[in-house]
């Protein structure tokens, strides 16, 4: 994956988070649900990898949602093993 593609994913995740921030306590879950439903598996894997390696460009809300996504992927992977 190129840095340009990663920058696009970071930007998109931060935009989704910003657009859902007004939901307060439910915001991170809404962002997580959006990513899970609408992002391709490869996009989800790339943004989770970025979070685990650095994640510094993610907003706090995007980071929280992507941490939940990583947890969900880990649970799914463990259940299918």
Automatic annotation (TrEMBL):
Pfam family, one: FdsD
Entry protein name: Formate dehydrogenase subunit delta
Originating organism: Billgrantia ethanolica
């Amino acid at each position: 994956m190129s840095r340009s593609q990663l920058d696009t994913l970071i930007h998109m995740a931060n935009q989704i988070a910003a657009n859902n921030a007004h939901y307060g306590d439910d915001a991170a879950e809404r962002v997580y649900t959006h990513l899970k439903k609408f992002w391709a598996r490869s996009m989800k894997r790339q943004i989770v990898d970025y979070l685990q390696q650095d994640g510094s460009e993610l907003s706090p809300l995007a980071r929280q949602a992507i941490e939940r996504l990583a947890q969900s992927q880990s649970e799914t992977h463990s259940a299918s093993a």
